[in-house]
Amino acid sequence: MSDLFLRACLGEEVERTPVWLMRQAGRYMEEYRRLREKYDFWTLCRTPELAARVTLQPVDRFGVDAAILFSDILVTLPAMGRRVEFSPGPTIDRPVRRREDVADLARPDPLADLGFVLDAISQLRRELEGRVPLIGFGGAPFTLAAYLVEGGGSKSFPALRALLYGDPEAARDLLDRLVDAQIDFLRAQIEAGAQAIQIFDSWGGILPRHLFEGFAAGPAARLVEGIRRPGVPVIYFARDCAHALDLVAATGADAISIDEKTPLDRAADLLGPGPALQGNLDPGVLLGGPEVVRAGVERVLASVPAGRGHVFNLGHGVLPPTPVESVEILVAEVRRATTRGREDK
Amino acid sequence: MSDLFLRACLGEEVERTPVWLMRQAGRYMEEYRRLREKYDFWTLCRTPELAARVTLQPVDRFGVDAAILFSDILVTLPAMGRRVEFSPGPTIDRPVRRREDVADLARPDPLADLGFVLDAISQLRRELEGRVPLIGFGGAPFTLAAYLVEGGGSKSFPALRALLYGDPEAARDLLDRLVDAQIDFLRAQIEAGAQAIQIFDSWGGILPRHLFEGFAAGPAARLVEGIRRPGVPVIYFARDCAHALDLVAATGADAISIDEKTPLDRAADLLGPGPALQGNLDPGVLLGGPEVVRAGVERVLASVPAGRGHVFNLGHGVLPPTPVESVEILVAEVRRATTRGREDK
Lengths: 345, 345
Hints:
Oligomer: homodimer
Strand content of chain A: 5-15%
Helix content of chain A: 40-55%
């Protein structure tokens, strides 16, 4: 079967462009909504059988070329001693604002604290039987720090900015701890069977260039280095980083996931040669009807520089009001448009 | 006295770099908090005497080089028939989702519907007695459309994306109406005495390049053209537009306000020759203590290309936890560092 996705991430030549979608399992699918009627979000994440079941829903329904573990980037935080609740955005209790708070954070033991993730991965590898590769994932150090310091999401992250400028030493200590925690966690995911890792840096893009290097890209680079394993590609999702794509490339990730704002040819110029590209259809396209979906797919495909590794994806997660038919059309269109030698057969 | 700010916006040579700050009147000032104990936000905006008083607070306290009318970009929406409430983020009743909703929007009559803004401007011009120029402002058409369609702020603007992709015709109609409304409103502000206009495009930056041109930059360009008046500079605030600064320049605004993410030299390269630059200190710098503020000011000043018009400002609004001392240091440092010929005297 299919290692198409892994080879494309590593920049190897492929017969056709592989496709998967960020948040491909979720509210827009009836199968998922039915499960959510019975279980809350954390229960789905923390129960290996349920997480595995949700993970497989889009693989079974759409035939995407990769499965991504159903989980949340914030699972690391409770393992560090901070409770997380969703209502619906995340709230983290006892935000990390001072040195003492940083020193107080526990170092997670993946087996003891995050075994439910590892069990879900092992179970999924058995159930997938090699049909498609399984992607593990985790939050980038900066993004986890943003949640820990701010105590949740934010428009302007005032507490986080206060720490970065007011006590950069403490911020660096926090990031070092998060790098270590995520190296342990993502290595354990690989050992449990994850065949690729995506690092989600949802908030790194809020940083000015002069901070991005030290607080986002640098820690991410140490994380990438710490989990590098032959044949296991690492993808770095850099949202809203048009001002810093050269610094993003310096993380050393095998592939960079680009948001919908920057066309892939332009992104490739800014990244420089090297990493494969993932992305970057606007999730909004899926709300626009069949012809809009097909045209959107063509626009993305036309923007990929010749010879560059490419994994088709959205620029961000599937939006909840997305009709499943749009995802079906997307997957079919990527297949149709990129299958090489189709005319010769 | 001082037309420093106006001349810098127009790219003329100046004796020193003028400085003002977005959201320079607000919660971080005790004078403001005292007024807010007595009046809610809308009452401050809608009562000319109060709006004028708040406008002058930072001018009196910090000696900034421009006053900006205390108001809100959303004042246009009630005049179009949509109520706005703050709790604390804005909520707009009866979101505009379909063609019929667009057709149902009223065209505001600035004198009848927004007289409180115009009265505040006239009163301020009298009270300022030429001390510093007065900036009027309004929302960019796209940003107002985003609020009208989504019904408030949003992380991913699904309803807005659904309209842009699902019924682009209706979206264009909506934007045309907003361009017309804002031309009338901003012209009336200039007639009432506003000496410069800033157009806030808080959300344009969420758009991919292929949509930005048609839905954000294009309507903004028509607005700029519609209010052009000799000697009255127009500033376009382009938040999160690192992926589209060339298209931002095409709006024809005299000055472009750049967020903190992109250094000004890099922004100037992307904008091309032409508009003056405004910005772009990270508001977080003001949370870091005197030395951090001074270093931050120096970093911004060092990034301004030689000979390019520059108005010192933040990359975004002043954050509520900002100490007033930081703003004092900022203003003093910009003065000290940019006053020409100081050594010769």
